[in-house]
Specification:
It is a single chain. This protein has a domain of 98 residues: 2-Layer Sandwich (Ribosomal Protein S5, domain 2), CATH 3.30.230. It has 142 residues and is α/β, with parallel strands linked by helices. The C terminus is likely disordered. The strands form 3 sheets. Strands 3-6-7 form a 3-stranded parallel sheet, with helices on both faces. Helix 1 packs across helix 4.
């Protein structure tokens, strides 16, 4: 993956951090600057564990990070005491976005009660107009 300035990143553990940075920018919602995000993202959005997790968490704690969001595989049974971090695990990119982005309340976007979440209307398909009728010009271009 190429990152700003032409830097080439070949470390799969950075996938989650980059995806959350993109989601943060797109949704105009920040992530906690004291959090570290480690995990590889598969094509279907699953968050996979990464190697040398204890070494990575020790270094993150030493650098002053307060929390870590990891693949569930890496978070399960992990003792936070040795790292000085609060540790949470996620299985999917969607769960990571819900957990990592900080909303107007100062809490992660997915932490408000279900009843208080704003309902989103379903997205219209590209081949249908607002009235639900098929758009023939789109069908002909296929």
């Amino acid at each position: 993956m190429n990152v700003a300035g032409g830097v080439r990143v070949e470390e799969p553990a950075v996938d989650l951090a980059i995806a959350l940075a993109v989601a943060s920018s797109f949704k105009e919602m920040p992530v906690d600057p004291r959090a570290v995000f480690l995990g590889e993202i598969g094509l279907s959005g699953e968050v996979r564990g990464c190697s040398q997790i204890d070494k990575r968490l020790r270094e993150a704690g030493r650098l002053g990070f307060a929390s870590a969001l990891l693949a569930t595989k890496n978070a399960n049974g992990r003792d936070a005491k040795g790292h000085g971090l609060s540790i949470a695990g996620v299985d999917s990119l969607r769960a990571a976005v819900d957990r990592a982005l900080i909303g107007d309340t100062g809490r992660p976007a997915g932490s408000e009660p279900e009843a208080k979440r704003e309902a989103r209307p379903p997205r219209a398909r590209n081949d249908e107009s607002e009235s639900g009728e098929s758009n023939e010009s789109d069908d002909q271009s296929l």
